[in-house]
Structure formats: structure tokens, C-alpha cells
Amino acid sequence: MAKPITHIDKKELTEEEQRQQELEELQETLLENKEAITKTVELLGNLEKQGILNLLNGLVSEGDQVLRVLVQNLDKPENTQAIRNGLLMMSTLGLVNMKELEPILLKVNAGIERVGENADTDESTGYLDMVRALKDPEVNRAVTLTLNFLKGMGEEKTDHQQNVDRTPDSNV
User: Fold this and answer.
1) Global pTM?
2) Given Cys at both, which of 34, 102, 125, 161 links 157, Cβ 3.0 to 4.6 Å?
3) Which one, of 112, 113, 101, 115, lies nearest residue 145 by Cα?
4) Which helix H or strand E contains 2, and what residues bound it?
5) Domain ranges of the chain
6) Is the four-CA dihedral 125, 127, 129, 131 of positive or negative sign?
7) Looking at residue 44, what is its pLDDT?
8) Nearest 5°: phi and psi at 89?
């Protein structure tokens, strides 16, 4: 009957064999991720061309001092309020229905373009000119749109709108 194996001798790799094995593993990893590595090198090249890499290196090397200046500036009341305003604007933009707003913005752009074309005129407009202008379909549509906008602004808010407008920390 055979004797049971009680001790297994593990083959010890020499330092050179260990390095060779690690090098092969590294080459295999590089080949598997060739596309990602190529894109990363391109990104680093573009960052270097634009000078952003030097900027980032400077920020990292002077990190504590940069962080200290940043915190000191953020601690100023006007900057704190600006951050709050920015966050409020971001949350408000999330509520805007862009599909409904897009046609209105296109009309605003057209109006701005028309003003730019006629900005240098010295004509004066009287009351009768304004009343006559209301007969123009384009002017009438714009006035109607403006009146509807003003009515919408004057409406009472629904419970949902009031809840959305409340900030989590209204005491600040």
C-alpha cells in the first residue's frame, strides 16, 4: 500500500523567473486593455497640449494651500449665498418643461433678432401706433402670449408647486 503524502514541496521561483512571470502578466493585461490605454494616453497628450496637466500637477502638489484658500473663499457670506443660489437654480431648471419652453425661446430669439435689426431707428411710437399695431397678427400673438404668461405667473400655486419651492434648510 502507498504511503500518504504528508508534505508538498512548492517550487520556489528565482527572482529572475518571478520578474519574467510578472512581465508576462503585465503584457497580457496591456494587450487586453489596449484600446482603453490608447485613449488614456491620447487624453493625457491633449491635457498636456492645453496646459491642463501642468495646472493639475500644481494643484496636487500644493493641495493643502489650494484647499485652504478655497475653503476661506467659500466661507465668505456672499460666496455661500452664491452657492445656495446656484443649487436653487439647478433644482428649478429640473422643473422646467423644455418641450413647452422651446417654442417660446425660439420666439424670443426671433424677437431679439428683430430688435437687433431695428435698434438704430429714431422713430417714436404713440398710443395710436400701439393700438394700430394690435391689428397686426404677429403683434397680437405676442401680446396674447405675454398676457397668458402674466396670468400663469399670477395663479395660485398648487400644493405640489409649494412643496417643490421649499428648501430643506429654510432657516439658513
Assistant:
1) 0.39
2) 161
3) 101
4) none
5) 18-73
6) positive
7) 92
8) -65, -40
* Distance of alpha carbon 142 from alpha carbon 107, whole angstroms: 9
Q: How far apart are CA 169 and CA 66, in angstroms?
A: 29
As given in the structure block, the three cell numbers for residue 45 are 497628450
* CA–CA–CA angle 129, 134, 137 (5° rounding): 130
- The DSSP annotation for 9-62 comes to PPPPPPHHHHHHHHHHHHHHHHHHTHHHHHHHHHHHHHHHHHTHHHHHHHHHHT
Cα angle: 35, vertex 41, 50; to 5 degrees: 140
pLDDT tens-place string over residues 21-50: 999 999 999 999 999 999 999 999 999 999
The C-alpha cell 492645453 sits at 50
